[in-house]
Write a structure and sequence with these properties.
alpha/beta, globular
Length: 266
């Protein structure tokens, strides 16, 4: 039986959860710190982190807000939430929830974060509508998305499709601030601001890089390949890495787009 898109996301990230983001110098933590700074949190604000993953945003926000401020993290993957529970302060709330169907009351939060997840939602406008509903007047939405992919990842992704990975987990690609801004304007957010951030990290060899791409959303593409085609992809990506970097070491620059917006005053 074919899983629905959301069931597929749950299945993939449940299995990826133990190692999620752990084999790439944990750039999620770096970008989380930067995104929280970009969001200009102040003490006593109520914060929601949608698609929280292992709670990188929650941990960064908790260091600013401290108990008893209300910080809530939601995720559609129950096993991701179990991993987050190991990492965030005990007073942070963790709830399994679909961001397209939030169960919070209207005007519950001052700030909503959504880091590296907006492209997974089948209906972006439905998600933004829900974020807007639960934000207070002049509340802030703070979102991040990956910018253009680095050359090795892009080559591997395209080759993966050529070898038979036909199902796409990323419904929408928001690699520029303008593409995100357009969605926010459609949802009637205002005072839209953007920024770009970069993070550099390296792998000692191609095996380390290969292991890392199994720990995030790329896993969904890899799992669609036959064992033979998967090995073809692995060997091809190693050869392409040597061509790109002229050494065993792989240096990666990850780029992110940050954008914030406000709800209207009532």
């Amino acid at each position: 039986m074919t899983l629905t898109h959301k069931e597929w996301i749950i299945d993939v990230f449940d299995r990826a959860s133990p190692d999620f983001g752990e084999k790439a110098s944990n750039y999620f933590n770096y970008f989380a710190e930067r995104l929280v700074e970009f969001g200009h949190l102040t003490k006593n604000e109520k914060v929601l982190d949608a698609a929280t993953g292992k709670g990188a945003i929650l941990s960064a926000a908790a260091r600013i807000l401290e108990s008893p401020a209300r910080i809530v993290g939601i995720d559609i993957s129950p096993k991701m939430l179990l991993e987050a529970k190991k990492r965030v302060p005990s007073w942070v709330e963790l709830i399994q929830m679909d961001a397209e169907h939030l169960t919070f009351a209207d005007q519950s939060f001052d700030v909503v974060f959504c880091a590296f997840a907006i492209y997974f939602f089948p209906n972006v406008q439905a998600v933004l509508s829900e974020f807007k509903r639960v934000l207070k007047p002049r509340g802030r939405l703070v979102v991040s998305s990956f910018g253009p992919r680095h050359p090795l990842f892009d080559w591997t992704y395209q080759r993966c499709r050529e070898l038979g990975a036909s199902r796409e987990m990323l419904i929408n690609r928001f690699e520029t601030a303008d593409s995100l801004k357009e969605q926010l304007e459609m949802a009637h957010f205002s005072n839209i601001k953007s920024s770009t951030e970069s993070c550099s990290y390296s792998f000692e060899n191609a095996n380390g890089w290969w292991d890392s791409i199994w720990t995030h959303g790329m896993r969904a593409m890899l799992e669609q390949l036959s064992p033979q085609n998967l090995e073809t992809l692995r060997q091809g990506s190693f050869a392409h890495a040597r061509q790109l970097y002229q050494s065993d070491k792989i240096n990666v620059d990850s780029h992110a787009v940050f954008i914030s917006a406000q709800t209207e005053s009532k």
